[in-house]
Specification:
transferase; cobalt ion binding; two-stranded antiparallel sheet; single chain; copper ion binding; 183 residues; cadmium ion binding; mainly alpha
């Protein structure tokens, strides 16, 4: 395959970018990849560590000197136990102590959302034994979403019907065993 940019040399570098709209790939030769604005690298430089990669990707301060990020994460509080700041966490890629999790609780959902392309819920496989229970929980979640939309649109009769459906599903869940996760 030839380079998509110069169309002369063989493509040896693949840039893959995943967004919520899908995945795009660009196949470039070493020379075009080196001069690309997408990601700068040098064949002689040491590879980035995972901490450096995450810090760069999440808007860490050390690797972005001289560059402007269109979205910067707030400094956040300083951990009272170990003294770690949020930007330092982004630079090194790990917490200093267990208290850091509580200290940076406000910033973590934003970091996780960015790491997982905006997804904050896991939608993976469910064990066969949980299929019925999972389906009921999903149905209850859908009913509550529809009920909220109906109330916001002032369709109160529809909301009342949905409330009754939600109570029925909730009762089915209760009959199936202990349900601590359904509110």
């Amino acid at each position: 395959m030839l380079c998509e940019n110069c169309k002369e040399l063989p493509a040896t570098v693949v840039f893959k970018q995943e967004t919520m709209n899908g995945t795009t790939e660009r196949h470039l030769c070493d020379k075009c990849a080196f001069y690309s604005q997408t990601f700068s690298f040098s064949p002689d430089q040491e590879p980035l560590s995972i901490q450096q990669f995450l810090a760069h990707w999440l808007g860490g301060s050390e690797l972005l000197q001289g560059q402007k990020s269109n979205e910067t994460l707030p400094d956040g509080p300083k951990c009272p136990s170990c003294g770690l700041t949020f930007h330092r966490f982004l630079d090194i890629g790990k917490f200093g102590c267990a208290t850091c999790y509580d200290t940076f609780r406000e910033q973590l959902p934003r970091v996780f959302a960015k790491l997982h392309n905006g997804n904050t819920n896991h939608g993976g496989k469910v064990p066969v034994s949980f299929n019925e229970r999972f389906a009921l929980k999903k149905q209850l979640e859908d009913i509550r979403t529809k009920m909220k939309e109906a109330v916001e649109a002032e369709r109160f009769e529809e909301a009342a019907i949905l409330r009754d459906e939600a109570n029925t599903v909730k009762q089915q869940l209760a009959d199936g065993g202990d349900d601590q996760h359904v509110i």
